[in-house]
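User: Design a sequence. Structure:
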């Protein structure tokens, strides 16, 4: 049954021991939304199969308690947060549960006792409306976690709706949290030293090629390829490809800046095309994509990626 914000909160009052459960590899929108609901209504935050890097940073910075891989049968009721399919919860067995989600399709709500499903830019925006309907104050830590959820789910506001900005402004106004405080948490250096070493090595080993005003970089690393590729585009590359090899599988992560995308680079397409050449799989978005190949020469595959990007940018330059 679909309910409104007040109905959602009102129904949860019937339960005392509530699990607010995030999807696997939980992101800040999931963790921030679950944490805010748990603080306001009472309950605990659960995560399935860990959290992503930024969510872990948020958990550390705000000292949020999370239960890893919880069993919903140990709780009176479960609220599934920012999750649209059962697959996103792995094998977690749900019995009585509610859903709050913002993804365009949401199948997990079909068996829920009640749910709120809106096409917002983030679940955090919906959660803020729930808190408002309760007439509850927005605590500092909750406000910071909701703002983090909005920032990350909207890709630093690239995909934000006018409502995202309105909600953000309202959270800032009512909680007294400054936007800069949250940006500082997000900008803080990754705490994982192995990641910092990996990213620096990727920068050290980078080979670059220039096409007109564009720079394409390739590099290798043993893990954190996606992060490293992203950072290479922050420090000067317009297009980057970072390869990592693990257990005989070669994985290439690619990132492109808007400047390169506007000139015809589509990372998803490049990854798809290159992966086919080597009998692997690949794809993704315009600006971020990846491929996996079973075995092969990592340098050769990286070179193919670079050649394809160079070709696209050269053709664009010549027209
Ligand atoms: Mn989300």
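Assistant: Done.
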């Amino acid at each position: 049954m679909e309910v409104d914000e007040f109905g959602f909160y009102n129904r949860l009052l019937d339960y005392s021991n509530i699990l607010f459960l995030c999807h696997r590899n939980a992101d800040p929108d999931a963790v921030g939304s679950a944490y805010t609901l748990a603080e306001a209504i009472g309950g605990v935050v659960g995560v399935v199969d860990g959290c992503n890097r930024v969510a872990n940073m948020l958990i550390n910075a705000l000292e949020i308690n999370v239960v890893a891989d919880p069993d919903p049968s140990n709780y009176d009721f479960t609220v599934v947060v920012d999750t649209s399919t059962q697959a996103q919860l792995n094998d977690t067995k749900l019995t009585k549960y509610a859903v709050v989600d913002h993804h365009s399709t949401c199948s997990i709500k079909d068996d829920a006792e009640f749910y709120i499903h809106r096409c917002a830019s983030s679940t955090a925006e919906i959660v803020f409306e729930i808190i408002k309907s309760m007439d509850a104050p927005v605590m500092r830590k909750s406000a910071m976690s909701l703002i983090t959820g909005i920032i990350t789910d909207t890709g630093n506001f690239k995909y934000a709706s006018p409502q995202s900005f309105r909600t953000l402004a309202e959270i800032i106004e009512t909680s007294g949290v400054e936007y800069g405080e949250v940006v500082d948490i997000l900008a803080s250096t990754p705490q994982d030293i192995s990641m910092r070493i990996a990213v620096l090595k990727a920068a050290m080993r980078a080979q670059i090629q220039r096409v007109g005003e564009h720079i394409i970089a390739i590099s290798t690393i043993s893990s954190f390829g996606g992060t490293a590729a992203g950072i290479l585009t922050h420090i000067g590359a317009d297009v980057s490809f970072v390869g990592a090899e693990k257990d005989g599988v070669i994985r290439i992560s690619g990132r492109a800046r808007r400047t390169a995308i506007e000139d015809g680079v589509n990372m998803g397409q490049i990854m798809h095309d290159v992966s086919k050449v080597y009998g692997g799989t690949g794809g993704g978005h315009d600006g971020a994509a990846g491929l996996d190949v079973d075995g092969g020469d990592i340098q050769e595959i990286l070179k193919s990626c670079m050649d394809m990007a160079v070709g696209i940018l050269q053709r664009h330059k010549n027209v």
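Residues 29, 82, 102, 122-123, 153 surround manganese (II) ion (CB under 6 Å). The CA atoms of residues 120 and 134 lie 20 Å apart.
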